Amino acid sequence: MIFTAPDGTRRIVNIPAADSRSGAGAVPEAATARRKELWPTVEEMARAHGLDPLLIDLVIRMESGYNPRALSPKGAQGVMQLMPSTARLYGVIDAFDPFENIGGGVRYLRDLLLRFDSNLALALAAYNAGPEAVARHGGIPPYEETRTYVSSILSAYRSDSPGARLSGGFGKPAAAPPSAAQPAPVAAAALKRPVRPVAVIETGGGRLVSNAVRAGEAPITRRLAFR
């Protein structure tokens, strides 16, 4: 398939006719090949919006296995499985264009992190089940799919070899211990916090998230919370 990259150049992404989505074990070979083609865009978009490219990589592996044509039973589209309403909100015209889709998905996850006070578990839960569900339940919703989704990504993100841990699709990851992602309490203010830009800073003590603020304001820096 031929797509227009963010810099205006035309790129070719090879998508095999037969797509393997086993739901267990390592990422299918076809997905690995697609990842190689799209990794430069993942890295560029993630860093441009202050997020860790590895985190975006894991979300994409979980969501679609890097399949630009992925379409979930619920209507989520493309590599980062954007719902049509979310795609419109972030200006994604063609959700099956991987470059557009990744750009929209990265910005959406960034905004979810900001809304939920840099709590990665809650942001991932909101990406899977919707921010309204997280707000309604005051934490990770009691949905098996969502809890497994969150625990799988967090486990892989903290692993020394995260690439071999995920091979899901349409939000259905390989089996993971559900206890790894228990409901996390969240302040009511965080559930309603307006969106503000966010940046991730690498330090010797780990990842820090810093809210970008208007001129004259001091940045709010906090450690990225996993639970």
List the helices and strands and how they pair.
Elements: E1 2-4, E2 10-12, H1 29-48, H2 53-63, H3 84-89, H4 98-115, H5 120-129, H6 131-137, H7 144-157, H8 188-191, E3 198-203, E4 206-211, E5 220-223
Antiparallel strand pairs: 1-2, 3-4, 4-5
Walk me through what this model shows.
The protein is mainly alpha-helical and 227 residues long. It has a single domain (25-162, 169-193), classed as Lysozyme. Helices cover 40% and strands 10% of the residues. The strands form 2 sheets. It has a 3-stranded antiparallel beta sheet with strand order 3-4-5, with helices on one face. Strands 1-2 form a two-stranded antiparallel ribbon. The chain is globular and about 40 Å long. It starts with a strand and ends with a strand.
